């Protein structure tokens, strides 16, 4: 039920008192009324609570969802049907609706069924304010949202799993804008191990840009390589050097691609950057070893001959 419906219920109950009247112990039910019979036909729980948050009326949907009959519920403390961790939240929720009658707060709470199972209900409420501006109680609805909560929990668990995987990769996962500063919008925790800077220092260029880390003589090459790939809407792969927070120079391998709207408009660039310094140095060492004789440290004869012919 929407906020407009709750407001209508509040006004009807406040004016007509068709379901409740004020007794020594607060709000108490009156004799069944046509309005009550109509409420029993809907699937959403409609409730009235006293100023202490105890349910004094609930339509038939309450019993269908919780197993507690409305008659039994009126004599039960909240602890019987509210999850222990949500009992204080329930009181604070109702108190908020009392302080702001037009606000219609909404909150998902865990309720307990008669058999001890947990059901997730989304509560919406409004204070019943008398002519002398005192709160007589609360009227509201409880809607079953178990499937929605389950799907949200699954999504959150998936996101946590993905975060764990990403943040344990030997490198940096990123998403950035396609500008010369490579303005970062997201960087995984691998950023600090790779660059020496925490991700927060680079995201949105807070302290420095990612382009600042790339050696000046290689920045244009990196830019042109990525732009060519983006124009052709293909993945890219390139090697270049960065300078870390400690001043060390590292070789990195970057693999990425443009991220496009379905309309074809470029959103940005995303990819993965990893440290290949050790591998790159080993490649350069092996390349050097192939040119020189290890014993004499002189150029190998065939390379020397080729070089001589080249200069002739």
Automatic annotation (TrEMBL):
GO function terms (MF aspect): protein histidine kinase activity
Known catalytic reactions: ATP + protein L-histidine = ADP + protein N-phospho-L-histidine
Gene3D superfamilies named in the record: PAS domain
Domain PAC: 236-288
Enzyme Commission numbers on file: 2.7.13.3
NCBIfam families, alphabetized: sensory_box
Protein name: histidine kinase
Species: Methyloceanibacter stevinii
């Amino acid at each position: 039920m929407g906020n407009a419906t709750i407001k209508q219920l509040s006004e009807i109950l406040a004016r007509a008192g068709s379901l409740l009247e004020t007794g020594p112990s607060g709000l108490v039910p009156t004799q069944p009324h046509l309005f009550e019979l109509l409420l029993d036909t809907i699937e959403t729980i409609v409730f009235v609570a006293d100023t202490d948050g105890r349910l004094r009326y609930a339509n038939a949907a309450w019993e269908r969802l919780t197993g507690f009959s409305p008659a039994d519920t009126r004599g039960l403390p909240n602890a019987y049907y509210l999850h222990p961790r949500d009992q204080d939240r329930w009181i604070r929720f109702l108190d908020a609706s009392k302080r702001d009658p037009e606000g219609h707060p909404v909150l998902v709470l865990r309720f307990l069924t008669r058999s001890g199972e947990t059901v997730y209900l989304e509560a919406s409420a409004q204070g019943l304010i008398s002519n002398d501006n005192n709160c007589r109680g609360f009227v509201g609805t409880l809607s079953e949202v178990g499937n929605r909560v389950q799907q949200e929990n699954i999504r959150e668990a998936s996101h946590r799993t993905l975060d764990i995987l990403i943040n344990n990769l030997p490198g940096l996962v990123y998403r950035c804008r396609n500008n010369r500063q490579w303005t970062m919008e997201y960087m995984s925790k691998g950023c600090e191990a790779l660059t020496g800077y925490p991700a927060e220092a680079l995201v949105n260029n807070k302290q420095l840009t990612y382009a600042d880390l790339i050696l000046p003589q290689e920045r244009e090459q990196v830019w042109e390589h990525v732009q060519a790939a983006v124009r052709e809407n293909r993945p890219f792969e390139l090697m270049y050097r960065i300078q870390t927070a400690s001043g060390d120079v590292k070789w990195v391998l970057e693999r990425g691609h443009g991220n496009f709207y379905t309309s074809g408009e470029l959103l940005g660039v995303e990819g993965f950057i990893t440290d290949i310094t050790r591998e790159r140095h080993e490649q350069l060492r092996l390349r050097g070893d192939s040119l020189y004789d290890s014993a004499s440290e002189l150029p190998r004869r065939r390379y020397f001959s080729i070089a001589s012919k080249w200069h002739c």
